[in-house]
Structure formats: structure tokens, C-alpha cells
Amino acid sequence: MMKMYFLTAFRSLLRNKSYSLLNIAGLALGITCSLLLFLVIQYQLSYDTFHSKADRIYRLNVSFTKIDFNTPASHFPLPAYLRSNGNLGFEHITQIYGDVGAQINIPAANGAPARKFLIEENIGFVDAAFFDVFDFDTGPVNVAPYFKDPNVVVLSQTLADKFFPDGDAVGSIIKYNNEYNLKVVSVMPDMPGNTEFPFQLLVSLETVRPSFPTDWGNLSSNHQTFVVLPEKVSAATAEVRLNDFVQQFSTEEKARRSQQYLLQPLNDIHYNPKFYGGFAQTPISREMIVAMAIVGVVLLLTACINFINLATAQAIKRAREVGVRKVLGSSKWQIVFQFLCETFFIVFFASFLSVILSELALPYLNELLDLKISFNLLQDPVLLLFLVVQTLVVTLFAGFYPAFILSSFQPITALKSKVSMQKFGDVSIRQVLVVLQFTICQVLIICTFLVNEQMSYFRNKALGFDKEAVVLVTLPREAGLKIQPLRQELLNNPAIREISFASDAPSSMNNSYGNFYFNHAANDVDFQIQKKFVDMHFFELFDMKFLAGGKYTISDSIHYMVINDTLRRRLGLESPEEAIGKNISLGGGEISGPIAGVVSDFHQGPLQIEIEPLLLTANPGDYTTLSAKIDMGQKQEALKHLEQVWETVYPADVFSYEFLDESIAAFYDEEARQNTLFKIFSIIAIFIGCLGLYGLVAFMAAQRTKEVGIRKVMGASVANIAILFSKEFINLVLIAFVLAVPVSYYLMDLWLQDYTYRIAIEYWPFILAGVATLLIALITMSAKAIQAALANPVLSLKSD
């Protein structure tokens, strides 16, 4: 019996090739999208789940509740103090210092010349306990004992192949940032992509520990501490115990600012931007994961609606077949099962095609989203189960209603081909589904337009400084003594217009915060400021506007300051002029001086972040960035001169640069990726909708062949007939637009709340999306409608 059902279903699909192909194409696209999104979601949810103690690993974060400041940093002395007090009940404690990018020098050896590399990979300075907490594969050697000593390193396989192409990495010496000679003790497989510890070099923490601050006043997000809780010990209990312990070392000022430690579970780090910073990967919110899941379901739903619409339209043509089956004794449920078998064949072929499409598309998706997702259907039982369950669910969801409609035809009515589709009042189920399908399409298109607008706003908003034609170069550690000769040498070439040295660019992700005292007050101010150390040329190079006072000059006796207007307002000063001459003292008073100027606010980071109180002052010992304003008409000459002077002044260091406007654009890489992804899904959604629309018009044309012939004989033009076929569906698309507008507005208003600086939602993206959808639908319908209208009326009238 089952064999007969499937054989009959297969033959039916072969008889209706166009119907089968349209359905397979629509379902294949929908299933492919859902499969790819499932892979992305599965990958995002897998971060650091492979560690055996993952459910008991916590990061110690610091929160300043009164000033609303949070950091993943921990105080540098904390791990040592915990260990000296019996670990305070923690099973393991590990201290990690992360860095990004470094210069690696390979000394000459065995006849090979010396080489130098500038790498962009993540570097982790870790202690021996790191290997007790985390389960990373570090190669054939147990490296934990080595990490009790300084100057040892484990290389990833990729970097080992790069540094030592002959394969003799273990036992070799590499020089790190022209400062540390490190011995390679092992080569490890590349770290997996789904980890918050993407280190390609592991260096013993003992190498840099002597340079760590010994007081409790310093925090750096690059320095983090992780602990393993014993089983059956709650994080809340451990948190109370830890804070009681740390209070012993807190000053009154820190206590007043309500500084406390919070234990963050390892499985929360990748999804919580509140404590983002340091060496961790860019977080993805749980809301974004839910949004991707919803988009996957919506695209699959669109494909299912497509199937239902085509199947119910096809049902009219198969009415006689159903009538004959019922006359010959088939029951209603036998007919339902027969048509579900046909649906299963279509969904099975679509799923098979989607597996192929997913494997072909995955490399491009990985490149777009900067992920490392692999596709191993037979080796991934969860993925295989998802595909099987999805195939069955889609078969039932997409196939049951058309099968129920077909099985409900009365034999006599069906044999006379006088059946009609079920209606609610004057509205058919198919019309409702078309409206739903195009509502989904238009919501995606409107949202894509508005996301695109926000991205354009990011790119074009005035930042409060001139970012054009500025080249950034990272300075070596010993740069301080050579910056003035370097500046003079660089300015000898007219292609370079100005040079400035600073701790970082005006807008960057490398921000430093601290407490301060205002105007010789006894206590520090109850909020933190961002601080940048910049020379006096910084303001001219970036064309910053002063509201009062001006830039400072370098003085051996007076340490002048410049503040931004936000800091002036936070200090309660009525006007910029009132700030001039007031004293600011940083931290413990090591840097103190009068305010020389108040600069107009400028954005110090991504536009997601509000402009913060900022202080700028000179401090050559902290200059790590060279900014060069160049003549873009002589771009190559300027870059060549920069490199030549660099090689002369810093012969042991690799020259590398980036343009400031490109580094600022990189702030929004994640949003740009998401925008591109949703553009693709919007195109796919509208394409699936058009497939269904084309099929519906085709079936309508076949149904009304004689009517078209009569109309043509009576003098109807091709345009009249095309309008006849298109009118019904145009109305449905317009209704869908009316429904899509409020839904889109609500979703985008919700999304934009995450951005401090954002666009106002205007009407034109809605109009543009509606017009675009209508035009696409008209082109789709017209193609088949015109074909029907051009048919010979004589042949049309002869058709049965």
C-alpha cells in the first residue's frame, strides 16, 4: 500500500513539472535560509561549551554602581591575595592578560637570515592554572609546568608555519615586541572560533608579571581573572565572600563609589555586552539570536505559504481526479495521506537541494559574518535531527491544508469540475495567505531600508573632528625619546602637513578612565572621566573647535589641561569661560594642572556610546600613536616618506599604518554584516513570494483560457487582459503594505533604542519599500498575464 502511495505521488509530480519545480525552488530557498541560520545560532550558542568545567567557571568583574561603570577587569594584585588566603574557597584561580597584535622577530639561525613579522592575532599571557580551568588542546606536550617560569611560548599551528616554514618551531627562540626572548615549548592546533579566548600565542604570565601595578587603584580590561567554583557552591555565596575579602584593601574613596565584584558565568560572557572589553570576542545579544531564529522561521513560513497557495490553486485542476478516487472507494483519509506523500516528496527534494545549497553558501556566510562554522551533516547529530524534524514539520504544515481541501471535494461536484475554494465571507484562504506572505516580505524590506539608513548615518555623521586624510601608526614602546626628531624629519616632506603624538586617536576603542579631583577639593569627583594624553599639535591636526581658551603649550613647570564641553557641564560650570584656570588633578595627584581650554564635544568611540566627560593633557611617556595629516593628492609619496623615516628611526620595528576613517568605519563592522545578511534574506523572501505569485497567475490563466479567448474576440487589448489578471493581486499587495507599516515601525523603533545617536524614522523608506514590492509583483504577474493575453483566441476557445 505504502509503495503504491509513493509511486502514485511520484508520477503525479512528474505530470505537473512546472508546479513541482516552483514548489521545490521556493521550499529549497526557505529551508536553506533556516538551515544556515540554524548553523549560525548553533555556533553562537556553542561558545566555550566544550570545557569540562564550563558550568562552574566564572569571571570576576568590577562594577561601580554609583557611576554606572562596569568592566571585565580585576585588580592586578587580586589573584595573588586570593591564593595567599587559601583561594578563598575557589577550586582554581587563573589570571589572564590579553593583547592584540605584536611584532615578532626571528633571530638568524642555521644559516637562515633574521626575519620580522607584524601579526594581528590575539596573544594571551596566562599562568599554569589556565590549563586546569580550560580544556584547550595545547599539542603533544603538557605545557602547564613550563608556564610557572617566564619567557616561554606556545604557538598556534598557523603561526608556527608562518614563522618556521621548515617545521622546526619547538625549541626555537622568538623575540616579542623587541622586548622578550621567548622559547617555543609546543605547537598547538589553532584555537576554535567559538571561544572567548581566541589566542594564537600563549605566553607565560611570569614574563610580564614584574611590570604589573602592585596597588589596588589600577584596572585594565586586558587583565581578567577567572575562577572555578566547587560543586554545590552558589555564585551568590562566593560573591559575598569575595567582596568581604576585597573590602580589606579598598580605600574610603573606592568604597564610596560602591566598587564591588560580580561573578559572571562563562556561558554569559558572549551574550552580555555590559561587561564587554579586553580580549573577548564581540558579543552578540540574546535578542539578536532570537531575531535570527524568528527570521529563519519567517522565511520558512513564507515558503510554506507559497506551497499552500500553489497547492490549493492546483487543487481545482485535480478535482476530477479526486472525484474518480472517491467513486472508486477511496476514503477521505486515504486521499489526505496520498497528497501528504506528494508533499513529502517535494519537501524531501527541497531539503536535499537545500543541503547542497547550504554547503555551497556556507563559505560566503563565514566570510560575511567572520565566523568559522563547519558543515558536517552526518557528523553533527543535532543538525541532522533539525533537518529531519524540519522536513516532517514542513510536510505537515504545508501539506495538510491542501490535502484536507482536496479530500473534502464532493464526488459529483468534483467530477463536474464545479468545486470552489473555501471562503470567509468574500475572502478566500488563498487571498489571506498571499497578504500574509507579502506582509512578511514588506516588513523585511522596510526594516532593511531603515537599517541601511542607520548605517549611512554612522558613516556620514559629523564626529566633531576632521577624520579625513589622517594616517595612524602605532609607535614602539621606546618611542618617547625619539618623537621630536621623528616629527621634524617627517615634516620635511611637503606631502605630510602635520604630525601629532597621542595615547590613541580621537575616536577609538582603546579608552582609559580614571578618577580625579577638581579645583583642589578634598575628595575626588563622584564620576569617572575618560583621559587621552595628546601633544599640543593634536588639536590643530584634527581641527578641533575651542569654546573657550585654547590649546596648551608644553611646560616643565605647569601641566595644562583641556576638557570637553560634556565634562564642563558635569562639573556644574555655567559657561566654558568659567572653566579656564580651574585645577584638575588625576588619580593620586601625579598629573595636576589648570584648564587651558574647553573643546567642543566630539565622539570618542562608536555612535552607540554617548559622548563622555573627557580630559586631554600632555604626557609623552604614554604616547603610543602617531597621527599624520597627509596631502591625499600625494598619498603614495607621503606613505613612502613615512616608511623611509620609520625604517631610519626604528630599524628593528615593522612599519604598519591604517587610515583613521577606515578604523572608525570598522566600529560598525558587526552592524554592516547584519545589514548585508538581512538584505539577502529580504531578496530571498521577495523572490519566494514572486515564485508563488507567478504560479498563481499561471494557474489562473490556465483556468480562464476560454474567458481570455472570448474577451480577445470581443476586442479586449493585451493591456486589458494583463490588468484583469493583475488587479486582484495588486489589491492584496496594497493590503499587505498597510499591515506591514505599523509592524515595521514598531520593530525598528525598538531596534533603534539601542543606539544613543540614531535616525528619526521617516515616511519615505515605507513608501519606497511599498513601491518596490508593488513593481516587483507587477513585473512578475505581467510576465505570465501578457503571455496568456497573446495566446491565439481560436486555440483558446477550442481548449477543453
TrEMBL record:
Location, primary (coarse class): membrane
InterPro entries tied to this protein: ABC3_permease_C, MacB_PCD, Macrolide_Exporter_MacB
Annotated TM spans: 21-43, 288-310, 335-362, 382-406, 427-451, 680-702, 729-748, 763-783
Subcellular compartments: Cell membrane
A single GO cellular-component term on record: plasma membrane
Lipid bilayer topology: Multi-pass membrane protein
Residues annotated as domain MacB-like periplasmic core: 20-243
Residues of the ABC3 transporter permease C-terminal domain: 294-411, 680-789
Keyword Oxidoreductase in annotation: no
A GO molecular-function descriptor: transmembrane transporter activity
Top-rank taxon, per record: Bacteria
Swiss-Prot/TrEMBL keywords: Cell membrane, Membrane, Transmembrane, Transmembrane helix
Designated name of the protein: FtsX-like permease family protein
Naturally occurring in which organism (per UniProt): Pontibacter akesuensis
